[in-house]
Amino acid sequence: MTPGGRIGAIGVVVALLAVAQLLACPRVPEDAKAGPRPDTANGAFIGSGAEGIARVPAFEKWWGRGRLTAGRTYLPGDDWESIEGPPEFLRPWGVWRGARADRLVVLNVPMFDRSEAHLPDAEVAELLAAGASGRYDAHFAVLAGRLVEAGLADSVLVLGWEMNGITFTHRCHPDPAGWRAYWQRIVRAMRAVEGQRFRFDFAPNRGRDAVPWTECYPGDAFVDVIGMDAYDHPAGMSFRRQVEEPYGLRDQVEFAARHRKPVSYPEWGLYRNGDNPTYMRGMLDWFREHRPLYQSLSDYCPHGVWLCAGHGRSAEVYRGR
C-alpha cells in the first residue's frame, strides 16, 4: 500500500481476540470482549508528525482499551536528505518514546530516493546493483547516528516495505539477489553505529504480488522481525482465504516460526470490501492468537475506523463493543 499522504506519518496500533477459534468457527460472539495482549505493542495510524502524537489521548479515550504503545512514522522517500532522518523530524518521536518505558517507535525506511517515482524495472535493477556495491551506505550510517542521538536507538526499522509489490522504487522483483545483497549492506552500515539496538523488520504485502516474498528474504542474520502488510483486499476475498492463500497470513507465521522470529503487522485495515466486521474480527483474533511484536491499524480512509467515517460496524468490533 503506497504511503502517499502517509509519508512522514506517525502511527500507533491495536490488538485483541483469538484466531484458533476463528479457524474452527469463523464467527465469534458479537459481544466477545477479549482485551489486548500485554505482550503486543498496539496502536493505530492517526496522523503525520506532531499532530498524530497530539491525537493519541482522544483516540485512546474513543478506543477504551488502554494506552497505545506503538508509534509509527515513515521517512519521506523523495530525496536522500529525507531518508537520512532530519533531526527536527526525529526529535518529537524521541521525546514520545522517552516518556514511557513500554513505548515502541516503528520507522519505515525507504531504500532509495524517488521512492514512488515508478521507475522502470531496468533502472531499479541498476540501482539495486549500486546499492549492493555500497554506494548508498553513508546515507544509512547518517540515519543510524541521528536515530541514536534522538533517543530512538531501540527503534524497529521497516526497511524496504512491500518489496514484493510494484509500487516502490525499492521493489525486489527486478533483481531479488541484488535486493537481498543491498538490504544486507544497509543493515551492516546501520549496525556499525555505536549505541544502536535496532531491530529490522522484513514486511512484504500479504500474498504473492509481483514476486514470492520468500525470494526476497535476506537471511536470518539480517532480519529481526517477519512483518506483513495485510489489508482487506481484493474485493470478495474472505478472511479465511487471506489466511490460507499462498504467501498469506498462515505462511507468514509458519515462515517466522521456522526462522525463530517474531511476527508483526505494520499496516492493516479495511479496503476493497468496505465496512467489513468479519475481516476486523478475524484480524483481531489473529493478533491475539499469534502474539505479534506490534500491530498497526492504518486509521485513514479507506482503511480506518476512527478518522474514516462510514465503517461503524467494523469500529464496534475494533472497540470490543
Structural description of this entry:
With 321 residues, the protein is of the alpha/beta class. It has a single domain, classed as Alpha-Beta Barrel (TIM Barrel). Helix content is 36%, strand content 14%. Helix 5 runs parallel beside helix 7 and helix 10 runs parallel beside helix 11.
Could you state the CATH homologous superfamily?
Glycosidases
Uncertain segments: 2-35
Q: First CA to last CA: what distance?
A: 29 Å
Helix/strand-derived category reads: alpha/beta
Question: What attributes does this structure have?
Answer:
TIM Barrel; 321 residues; 11 helices; eleven-stranded mixed beta sheet; alpha/beta; disordered N terminus
Please render the helix and strand layout as text:
Blueprint: E1 9-11, H1 19-24, E2 41-45, E3 47-48, H2 49-63, E4 70-74, H3 80-83, H4 87-98, E5 104-109, H5 121-132, H6 137-149, E6 156-159, H7 176-191, E7 199-202, E8 225-227, E9 230-231, H8 239-244, H9 249-258, E10 263-269, H10 277-290, E11 294-298, H11 312-319
Parallel strand pairs: 2-11, 4-5, 5-6, 6-7, 7-8, 8-10, 9-10, 10-11
Antiparallel strand pairs: 1-3, 1-4
